[in-house]
Design goal:
Layout (H helix, E strand, L loop, with lengths): L8 E12 L3 E2 L5 E2 L7 E4 L1 H15 L1 E2 L4 E2 L13 H11 L18 H14 L1 H6 E3 L8 E3 L2 E3 L2 E6 L3 E7 L5 H6 L6 E19 L1 H7 L3 H13 L11 E12 L8 H6 L1 E5 L13 E5 L8 E5 L2
């Protein structure tokens, strides 16, 4: 296999938010997610993967196709009809299952067809061969266990979400204007974190990568996405979000040379100043990597 991944990897990724909501909780009025016992902020893996997918999509976008193109198409995206992709996979492998006019009818396909359709999906969709996917809805393309997995991100210190009052000077209709008797101001709420530094860890399995076709070029694109994804995800709600640090642990074998948790523990984030004063910038922290806790068979690579 060309450019086959021959090493196991783990990574630690630090990012911060300033006056924004990094990941709202729909069950709590879109307040920033927190651990209620510790008040540490939380950003889900799904949220981070969404930003990675979005970066890959725009990076590999083709103006003529009006989409990202193979082998960097994105399976999970806004308004995507997944079963249409499954049907396309069966057409790609030459199966007449794709010619069934009843699109709502569930079709399982033979064992060999499912295997080939799964391989076709991995070859054409970057996020399928990276994160995996359950593709057994409608026309069955099987399931893929992705080689790249990301933990929930957690803030280094407890955060204090704020609810800010905002006003809108315009109205949506004549009726609304009359009801407000000439005063067009409408009050609203906005949830922000004044400042929070978040940390997440992740894993790259060489064995699963070889099964899905995730190669060295895909891996480099993944690192690039982590470094740049916030630059193309700015919004009024999210405030100022920035990638701050990406440290990769490269083992010298597919199986690995040290437990992942020990490598993660070797990287510590500490306050530079008095911890009684709330942190308001990345420079209020220092990142330390304990080389004594990392075996010589594991290479430390600072990507950012």
């Amino acid at each position: 296999m060309a450019n086959e991944i021959e090493n196991r990897y783990e990574f630690v990724y630090l990012f911060d938010v300033e006056n924004g909501n990094p990941n709202g909780d729909p069950d709590a009025g879109n307040m920033p997610r927190i651990d209620p016992e510790t008040n540490h902020g939380i950003v889900t893996d799904v949220c981070l993967k969404r930003k990675i997918r979005n970066y890959i999509y725009i990076k590999k976008y083709d103006d003529e196709e009006h989409d990202s193109v193979s082998p960097y198409r994105i399976y999970i995206k806004e308004k995507a009809i997944l079963n249409d992709f499954h049907r396309e996979a069966y057409k790609g492998i030459g199966s007449n299952l794709s010619e069934d006019n009843n699109k709502d009818k569930k079709r399982k396909g033979s064992g060999d067809e499912v295997k080939r359709a799964r391989k076709w999906m991995c070859e054409n969709f970057y996020d399928v061969r990276t994160f995996g996917a359950v593709m057994s809805t409608g026309i069955n393309c099987g399931q893929v266990r992705g080689p790249v997995q990301i933990n929930f991100a957690k803030s280094v210190e407890p955060i204090l979400p704020l609810e800010i009052s905002i006003s809108r000077m315009a109205v949506t209709s004549i009726k609304e204007s009359k009801d407000q008797k000439g005063d067009n101001r409408t009050m609203g709420r906005k949830h922000i974190v004044p400042y929070g530094l978040y940390r997440t860890e992740g894993y790259v399995s060489a064995f699963l990568a070889n099964q899905t076709g995730f190669n060295k070029e895909d891996l480099e694109l993944f690192w690039e996405a982590l470094i740049n994804m916030f630059e193309h995800d700015h919004s009024a709600a999210r405030g100022k979000m920035s990638a701050r640090k990406l440290v990769v642990f490269e083992h010298n074998s597919k199986l690995g040379n040290a437990p992942s948790h020990k490598l993660f523990d070797a990287l510590k984030v500490e306050r530079v100043k008095d911890s009684q004063i709330p942190a308001r910038r990345f420079e209020d922290y220092v990142v330390k990597i304990s080389a004594d806790d990392i075996p010589s068979s594991v290479k430390v690579i600072e990507k950012l």
